[in-house]
Amino acid sequence: MPTFLHTADWQMGRAFTRFETEDGAALVEARFEAIETLAQLANEHQCDAVLVAGDVFDAQTISDRTIRRVFNATKGFTGPWVMLPGNHDAALAESVWTRAQRLGAVPENVNLALQPGVIDLEDQRLSILCAPLTQRHTYGDLTEPFSGYQSPEGFLRVGLAHGSVQGLLPDEIDSTNPIAPDRAKASSLDYLALGDWHGTKQIDERTWYSGTPEPERFRNNEAGNALIVEVSEFGATPKVTSVPTGRYQWHQWRETLAVQSDLEQLLERLNALPESAVVDLRLEGSVTLAGEETLLKALSVAEARFRSLGCERSGLQLTPTDEDIAALKADGYVGEVVESLRERQEGAQDDVARDALAILAGMLREREQEVGQ
Amino acid sequence: MKLQRMRIEQLRQFRKPFVLDNLQPGLNLIHGPNESGKSTLVRAIRAAFFERYRSTAVDDLRPWGDSAAAPTIELEFEQDDRTWRLTKSFLQRKRCDLAVGTETYSEDDAEEKLAELLGYQYPKRGASKAEHWGIPGLLWVEQGTGQDIEQAIEHAGDHLKSALNSMVGEVASSGGDDLIETVRSQRDTLLTGTGKPRGDYLKLEKDRAQYELEIEELKERVHKYQEQVDRLGKLAQDYDQAEAERPWEDAQRQLEEARVRYQQVERLEQQQNQEKATLSQLQQNHSLLQQNKEHLEGLSRQLEVRKAELDRAERDLSVAEAQTPAVTGRLTEARTAYEQAEKQRKLAGLLQTRERLEQDVRRLEQQKQVLTQNLAKAKEYHQQLEQARQQARENRIDSELVKKLRATGNQLNEETIRSRTIATRLSWQLDAGASLTLNEESLTGQGERQLLEESTLVIPGVGTLGITPGGEELASTRRKLKALEEDLDEQLKTLGVESVEQAEDRLSVFESAGRAVKHADELFKSLAPAGLEQLVSDQKEVDGELEKARTQLEATPKPDPKEDVPALEEAEAAFTRAGNALDKAESDERAHQSSLSALKQARDNAKTEWQRLADEEKSPERQQQLLQITTDLANIEKQQAELEASLERREREIREARPDFLRQDIERYQNAVNQLRQTQENRGRELRDIKVRLEAWGAEGLEEQLNEKEAEYDQCNRRYQELHRRAQALDLLLNLLTEKRQALTRRLQAPLQKHLNHYLSVLFPEASLEVDEQLRPGTFARGTELGQITELSFGAREQMGLISRLAYADLLREAGRPTLVILDDTLVHSDSDRLEEMKRILFDAASRHQILLFTCHPEKWQDLGVPPVDIQASKGQSMQSQE
Question: Which positions fall inside the Calcineurin-like phosphoesterase domain (chain A) (predicted)?
Fold first, then answer.
């Protein structure tokens, strides 16, 4: 009986705006590598086909180069691929798909499900029931016609769709492109391969979101996998195995520093992360001038180690201690200025005052070092 | 600080050692003329403090031409209750030694110690300049620079502040001003003086705006792209639907139907037009027949007209015939009158002849008597002459008369011959035994007669024939002939001859006799010109003539005296008139006759016309024609009625078919077909256009570009935000630092102001001089006068400068700092009043500070109340003490 690989939401052509240029480029590159990884996995698991449940491309108008590279990346697996247009790459009158076809970029073993209907993979004895998006937004259930689709005798019926299974996903997910929760059962599907939700998620025993193969945001859990689906016999519950494919792990930490040990613990945790981490730190609370110095040093080291490190410290107040000020030798009216800045920072949560204090502290520290030398 | 003693050696003009001692703690007046070395002393004090002992830039200290000199200065002063001794040598022997109480310093240490004490700095290299002089620069006034207070204060700046620090407590920061400068320089890399972004910050701001613009553009283009994609989808759907439904074919079908209907109507209209033409022809025909009918019916009327014309012709003729007797009567009358006139004229001629003859008789009788008397005288030639005369007498005739007679005779003959040619010729050839009577003349056999007058021919047993000769001339010829005959007769009678031939003969005899008489007479006259014989012959001639006259008179019938005979001329005129009248009457008569015959002709013509018409009117063909026309007319009217009914029917049919609407339908359907096809073609074209456009746009990878651009924007924005925050922080920091520092300065302002006012009240009782934040004297006010110190006169500025320096000296003294005031030839521009006030001020200041006043005008300072020191004199003392 056939085995196939289920993936979705490649979002090719996306740029990562929040990162430095170099990091963004590496993350983009990782997404191309993910496709190659998928092809390799399909070979390893002797899959009969690879099903991509929508959003192969992040947008309709992306460069020819990206289009060609996406299809080139599939070359590792020579068996059939079925790609479904999703909401980002809907099969409009003119779409990224029509362009890909015009460019001659689509290999023969890649099937584009640009119209609703059934793609029968004769050799693999697979009937792929496709519900492509042909408009940007759909408010009806595109999988509804699945019940009416016939499949040849002895073929597995596998649904391929992109959208939100009603009532199961968090409310914040866009409710367009709805899919009935019992679609697999209602339309006698052996398996329903879904896309749109970027984390790997099981809906029922025959219905899964594969998630994106390479994470691209901090929000989703369980991103960076592909699903290997095996069906032992007709009517049998498919065996679904989640295989990790992601190269980078995305971490978003929101921490509040109050006492010295908080900072120490944070730095320990940071040190424990692998180098393939993409880290987003948001710090709040307060830190002494000495503490900040420690933090800045640690962040500087971490920046060099990780793929990407972002740290938002505007919520973190500087609270110079008397020792801090004594160490800085801020006498006379400069001492008055330090005091004034500290008051403004605490009283009005004034970022500017915080920054000014940091700069002043830096300058004084430098001066002390010069004097010390 | 009290300077107590100074000694200089090998320094400019002081080649030998020079000592100035016994300097007082207060005011010291040191004077000397120009070139005496006053300025050298001032220079020496400055060099001792400001110039590095190892400086190579102090050549000015060397005595002129002395390259081996080592200019040396020794100073001794008291400060902090300790005695300070400074010995400084330059050039050839570079040394610096300082002894403070029991401590000694040398070289750089010594110099640093001095700089710290007085508050100045050394130049890194070269000669010391104003900016290095610090506090001494403020208190030691060089010649001619007393007014330049601002520069001096600026150069003293930091030294002043740190010097005054103790006065205002622990507020000044160590290195605070450096910090401010660092913050300012860092801030100024990001912000302009007015707080606008600059440098990278500005560039980022601009870049960010540029990115925003580009992103907006890209978004707009993506939006356009999506619109076009939507349009493409919609178009493709519409196009396919239209291709499937083909609405233009329906419209085409409707168009064809409308055309067929319209063609039917057009055919009806054609028929209508044809029938209208037919109707028009019928109407024309009817009109023609009607005319014919009227013509035929008009013949009887014409006949009446003709009859009237005939009647009129006959009436005219009868009128003319009625006139005939009158015309004839007038002719007869004229003829009668003519004959009467002719008779009168004959009578008159006769009467005239008689009168002439009677005259001749009387004349001849008288002549005869005369001749008889003369007869006796001519006897001799009498015989001869008598004979000839006898002969002549017997045959005397007038040759002229004979000639006239002959002419008349010839004329008569010619006229007679002519009359014969025009006279009616009557010829006859009668059977034997038969006879005719012409004018009572019987005619037999054969013959001929010319008839000039009306003649009567009687044919026995038959009757009488009247012959009237024709021709106009005949009558006049006849009358002429008759006149000629009578004339001839008259002449014959006058000549007394029977015929013309007789007259001719007699003339011939007479002429021969005459010739004989003439011959005899000539003889007689030659013999006796008076001529008896001529007389005798004359007598006899007269007798003969008389006789002849008497005979003629007797032969001439005597007219009836009762008869009234007019004169011959009158008679002849009447005769001519009568002739004319007769001619007129004859002409009238002829005109009448011709008029008559013309009228007759007219009458005949009229009659013929009338007759012809009368015949025609009564002819059966005309009746037949009339009948035919009436039938035809009836037929035509019937046809007309039928046609009109048919026309009306068809007109209604056409009207009900609404051809105008049909035409509009055709146009509408035609438009619809065109428009529908056009729409579809347009769709096709737009589809192709959009596809091409989208292919081009799609190739640009707009959304990917947008993504990348947004990433760049984010980075730019992050960097911008960083710099923005940094700029704000630096700005805040700078403001705070400056603020705090200014607060400090303001705390120093008050005491300085106090000292300044102290001196100012002496100089200008009502004036005020404000000290600004830089501790410089700024705004000067005196009464209503208000202005900066720099706007004052040179003298006033110098005075202000001096009191400001003294105020600083007071402030420094309060802060426990050393004060020494050196004035080199100052206040030279002050007037005597002002100088007086300044002396009071100086005297007052000298109670707190040592003041060295160098001058070359000691007389101006006599009333200072201190003993002046004369340099020249001191020089001498120095020399002496050395010796």
Answer: 3-94
Best of B690, B695, B707 to disrupt the A interface (most A CBs within 10 Å) is: B707
Residue A364 contacts by C-beta under 8 Å, 6 or more apart in sequence? A328, A329, A330, A334, B179
Nearest by CB: B707 against A14, A340, A354: A14
Report how far residue A255's alpha carbon sits from residue B858's, in angstroms, rounded to the nearest whole number. Answer: 84
Q: Check A352 against B725: CB less than 8 A apart.
A: yes
* Residue B603 CA neighbour count, 13 Å, CB half: 16
Q: How far apart are CA A83 and CA A51, in angstroms?
A: 6
Distance CA(B735)–CA(A340), nearest Å, equals: 12
* Residue from A134, A136, A333, A342 to probe the interface with B (highest B Cβ count within 10 Å): A333
Residue B880 has pLDDT above 60, yes or no: no
Which of A244, A275, A300 lies at the terminal end of a domain, its last residue? A244
Q: How far apart are CA A72 and CA B466, in angstroms?
A: 167
Distance of CA B532 to the CA centre of its chain: 133
Strand partners, A309: A279
Q: Residue A13 and residue B707: Cβ atoms within 8 Å?
A: yes
- Contact state of B730 with A367 under an 8 Å Cβ cutoff: no
Whether the predicted pLDDT of B106 surpasses 70: yes
CA distance B729 to chain A (A): 4
A268: closest CA of chain B, how far (Å) = 28
Inspect the interface and report whether the beta carbons of A334 and B173 lie closer than 8 Å: yes
Q: Give bridge partners of residue B104 from the DSSP assignment.
A: B99
**Nearest residue on chain A to B177, judged by CA atoms?**
A334
Here the tokens at position B831 are 């007037």
Tell me the C-alpha to C-alpha distance, in Å, between residue B682 and each of A242, B241, B252, B686.
53, 14, 19, 6
Per-residue pLDDT tens over the stretch A49-85: 999 999 999 988 888 889 999 999 999 999 999 999 9
C-alpha span between B122 and B132 (Å, rounded): 6
Number of domains in chain B: 3
- Same structural domain, A320 and A274: yes
Chains A and B: how many Cβ contacts under 8 Å?
A: 153
Interface touch A61/B171, C-beta < 8 Å: no
* Count of domains for chain A: 2
Query: Do residues A106 and A58 both lie within one domain?
Result: yes
Q: Check B236 against A367: CB less than 8 A apart.
A: no
Domain CATH for B15? 3.40.50.300
pLDDT for residue B168: 60
For tokens 């202005």, what's the residue? B787
Most confident of A71-80, B105-114, B571-580: A71-80
Across the interface, do A341 and B698 touch by the CB < 8 Å criterion? no
CATH number of the structural domain spanning residue A57: 3.60.21.10
A64/B171 Cβ within 8 A: no
- Terminal Cα distance for chain B, rounded: 31
> B702-763 and A21-44 helices cross at what angle (nearest 10)?
160
H or E segment to which residue A50 belongs: strand A49-52
Span B727-771, pLDDT tens digits: 888 888 888 888 887 777 777 777 888 888 888 888 888 788 887
Closest Cβ opposite residue A60 in set B236, B703, B729: B703
Among all chains, which residue has been given the structure tokens 């070092």?
Answer: A369
Q: Is residue B741 part of a domain?
A: no
Domain end residue (candidates: A244, A270, A296): A244
Q: Which amino acid is at B487?
A: D
DSSP string, B103-160: EEEEHHHHHHHHHHHHT----SSSS--GGG-HHHHHHEEPTT-TT-HHHHHHHHHHHH
**A367 and A346, same structural domain?**
yes
Both structure tokens of B162? 């740190």
Q: What is the DSSP letter of A9?
A: -
Same domain, A165 and A140: yes
Residue from A198, A280, A190 nearest A4 by CA? A190
